[in-house]
Amino acid sequence: MSDIRRLARRVEGGDLSAVARAISFVVDERPGSEELSSELYRRSSSVHKVGLAGPPGSGKSTLTGRLISYWRGQGLKVGVLAVDPSSPVSGGAFLGDRLRIQDHAGDPCVYIRSLATRGRVGGLTPTIFGAIHVLEAAGFQKILVETVGVGQDEVEVAHAADTVLYVVTPGLGDEIQALKAGIMEIGDIFVVNKADLQGKDKAVADLRRALAIGAEASPAGGWAAPVLATSALTGEGIAALGEMIERHQDHLDSSGQRSRRLKDQLRAEVSLYLARRISRSVEKRLTERHLSALVERKTDPVTLGHELLDARGGA
Amino acid sequence: MVEGTASPYRILIAKPGLDGHDRGAKVIVRALRDAGFEVIYTGIRQTPEMIARAAIQEDVDAVGLSLLSGAHMTLFPRVASLLKEEGLGDILVFGGGIIPDEDFPLLRKKGIDRVFGPGTSLQSIVDYLKEALARRKQATDGKSKARKIKEGAKAAK
For residue A310, what are the contacts with CB-CB under 8 A and spacing of at least 6? Predict the structure, then answer.
């Protein structure tokens, strides 16, 4: 048996150090990582994935900790992928989500992995899908993907999760914010966290009002995104949120949307893979001579791009 | 990350024991981030077991321990030996804090590769890590092609 296969078998046995190693293989794209990915993917099945998005400091990590407790209470094995931004300057990153998810440090049925975006915008890391498949293969029953604190139009998490929670806090803006395009469109459940702070009721009401307008304009497959208030600090509202997540999951199944979403996710995964592979192989052909020709305006970026793509097919 | 190019090294910075002074640890975190490392910080008051578990789950290349309370002779070696028990003895363990020079040799013997005292420049820590991790990577690369697939102690667990 090859080393890669052995690693795959250990992942399937739920060995957390093997899970950790396998995720490194996949996100670093080390030699053997593709063999590992296909090995794991073909032998596992998809798991309900919950995505957490929302601005920095809205309490996503603390909420993650609470949701882990909720699911652990139901006896489920939980895997968490927590993404924080890489520095565009140094390439380094400070991954601080784990600090807020300490209650489960000793629990062998909880796996938490911090990942850096490594240059990708959109709230996730390009190899997140591979990491998700490792967790699926390891037998986790809930997978939680926590995105970087995103801005307004970083909607990638919708391609990685079945149920997207969008987390805000009181005082972040009125219903006009909620009418804007982008992240507000992809939330399946809206969470007003830090409900222990002043202004919770207004924030909930504003969001509900804005979402009601949206629901009239474009009914979204029979699911009206609910707004819930939670306090990750005190635990208030967590059980209701947990139940709402289950209800959304049931809705995905009964409405037939589950497979639609899964296909969308797989389309995104394949297209990201193609984009990486193609740009890598084509960019290798871009030489100093080409760049000089562009500077001298002997050719143009589009024509050159075509030539490079064609050369790739021919050679 | 393009296949073949190096991914950033991953470092866990941890504070074992009871002292709550983590400004130093945070300064190190920041310096390492700016030097291109991916740094995980788990906060104050960690047990050696919590630190070892975080190191395993995060698949880090090195663990940096910060301690100012004087319990380093107990807690630092404990982290190193827990990692060894898990079959992860190749994770580099280093430390810093208020630690007397005379403790350095014994700590080294117990698996703490290097200890940095007060007044150490950030650059010297960055240089040390880059060099030590490159050396470690070369050694493991040489040992086997599938260097990071480890069997043994952990599999038996």
Answer: none
Q: Is the ipTM of this complex over 0.90?
A: no
B-chain residues within 8 Å CB-CB of A21?
Answer: 59, 148-150
CB–CB contact B54 A98 (8 Å): yes
CB contact under 8 A, A16 and B38: no
* Contact assessment for residue A160 and residue A56, using Cβ atoms and an 8 Å cutoff: no
Q: Provide the residue range defining the domain that includes A30.
A: 1-43
CA A72 to chain centre: 21
φ/ψ bin of B9: left (φ > 0), alpha (ψ from -120 to 50), beta (otherwise)? beta
Closest alpha carbon within chain B to A14:
B155
Please report whether residue A90 resides in a domain: yes
Q: Does residue A264 lie within any of the structural domains?
A: no
pLDDT tens string for chain A (315 positions)?
A: 789 999 999 999 999 999 999 999 999 989 999 999 999 999 899 999 999 988 888 889 999 999 999 999 999 999 999 988 888 888 888 888 888 887 887 888 999 999 988 876 566 777 889 999 999 999 999 999 998 876 555 567 878 899 999 998 887 766 566 656 566 777 899 999 998 888 888 888 888 888 877 666 655 568 888 999 999 889 999 999 999 999 999 999 999 899 999 999 999 899 888 888 888 888 888 999 999 999 999 999 999 999 998 875 544
Q: In terms of domains, do A142 and A284 share one?
A: no
Contact between chains at B150 and A17 (C-beta distance less than 8 A): yes
